[in-house]
Structures are given as C-alpha cells and as structure tokens.
Amino acid sequence: MADDSAHPPPSSGVTRRALFKGAGAAAAAGAVFRSLDAVGEEDGPRTQGPGPGAVTLRVNGTERKVDVEPRETLLQTLRLPLELTGAKPVCDRGTCGACTVWIDGAPVYACSVLTVEAEGREVTTVEGLGTPAAPHPVQAAFVEHDALQCGFCTPGFVMSCAWAVKTHGKSLTAEQVRAACAGNLCRCGTYPHVIRAALAAARGAR
Ligand code: FES
Ligand code: FES
To answer: With a 6 A CB cut-off, is 100 part of the ligand 1 pocket?
Structure first.
C-alpha cells in the first residue's frame, strides 16, 4: 500500500502524495488541493500574517473560530487549539497518511494543508464520522475485524476506507480499498484486516 502509483484521485485525478510532491514548498503558500485556486479567484488576494489572524473553519459540521499564524498546518490547528486529536502527527511531511482528514469530502493530508487554506471548506475528521455510541460502519467494522494493532495509523485508514465506501458503495472491491489506502502506511502490518473491514462496511452500506 506504500506505492500510491495506482492510487486513484480522490476526486481530481491526482494522488494525495503526488499532489503534495508536485506542489512542493510553493504549496505551503498556495493551491494544495484542487479547488483552492477557485476560492482565490473569487475572493481576490488576501494578505495575512506574519502574526496570528482570525480564521473561521467549518469542522465536523460546526463553525470554529481560531487565531492562527499563516504557517500553521490544519493538523496543528485541529489538534491544538481545537482538541481534535484523532488525526495523528507521524511523519508531518505527507508520506504516511496518519493525519488523513477530508476536505469537502475528499481525503487530504492535514499536515500538508495550511489552516488558512481550509477556511470556507468543510473539514471532516475521524471524530466527525461517528461516536463510540454510534460509530460509522467503517469504525465498527475496524473493531469487528480487528483492523488495528497499535492504532496509531487507524484514524487515517478509517478516513480513507470511509471515503472508499461512500464512493463505491456495495460494489467496493479489495483493489479499490488498496487504492484508496495507497497513501496510508501501517507499521504493524494490519493491511489484510483493513481490507476485510472496509469490504464488510461496504456490504452493509446503504
Ligand atoms: S503526518 Fe501527515 S502524512 Fe504523515
Ligand atoms: S496498527 Fe500500528 S501502525 Fe498501523
């Protein structure tokens, strides 16, 4: 799963890793994912920084106002000050997928998106998928199929698998799960269980 050459574009035709690789350092100040350009064009140039500035995010369906420096990543903002610690900082450089969240319904690496770039977007974290009392089908399937060991990679895998389930529904195949998770690494090697869990969740998908 480490090779994302077959990773289908979440919705844009570009893999997450390739997207960020291509964007490079310039991405930190510009278009990290496909639709940011459009926002810039509509709203015109906006100057911010170097100190903290007010940003309003929409996270898991709720508006959250935060003061952030322009250099702050979405992952940093989610974990502190928003205290949503599901997305994990592991490589912090767009190579492991532990920080995967959705922006406008598509998986992205939160460590590779600036918080200011996420303004006006719908951000979904693993906490927004379900709760312990009412888990998302993928979350429930991960438990049922023992799809985790240390669990550090799990939130990222859940976000990728949940995206695959919502995209492909009952027709989801193992190959499509592998492709959806191509940007996620599991050092404990739970890949077969992850695939089993995703397929089980898809079978129950409505
Ligand atoms: S922490 Fe973001 S990809 Fe590894
Ligand atoms: S369960 Fe340990 S890294 Fe994946």
So the answer is: no
Q: Does ligand 1 come within 6 angstroms of the Cβ of 102?
A: no
For residue range 178-197, list pLDDT tens digits in order. 999 999 999 999 999 999 99
Contact 184, 100 (CB under 8 A): yes
**Distance from Cα 195 to the centre of ligand 2, integer Å:** 14
Per-residue pLDDT at 50: 84
Q: Please state the atom number of ligand 2 nearest to the C-alpha of residue 186.
A: 4
Dump pLDDT digits (tens) for 136-168: 999 999 999 999 999 999 999 999 999 999 999
Report how far apart, in Å, the C-alpha atoms of 139 and of each of 22, 128, 164 are. Answer: 32, 11, 13
Pair (79, 39) in one structural domain:
yes
- Kindly state whether residue 124 falls inside one of the protein's structural domains: yes
Task: State the Cα–Cα distance between residues 161 and 198, nearest whole angstrom.
Answer: 6
For residue 179, the number of C-alpha atoms closer than 13 Å in the C-beta half-sphere is 19
Q: In angstroms, what is the span from residue 16 Cα to ligand 2's centroid?
A: 20
| Polymer length of the chain | 206
Please count the structural domains in the chain.
Answer: 2
User: Is residue 31 in a domain?
Assistant: yes
What pLDDT does 204 receive? 93
pLDDT at 28: 35
Q: Of the candidates 105, 128, 151, which is a domain's last residue?
A: 128
Which atom of ligand 2 lies at the shortest distance from residue 188's CA? Answer: 2
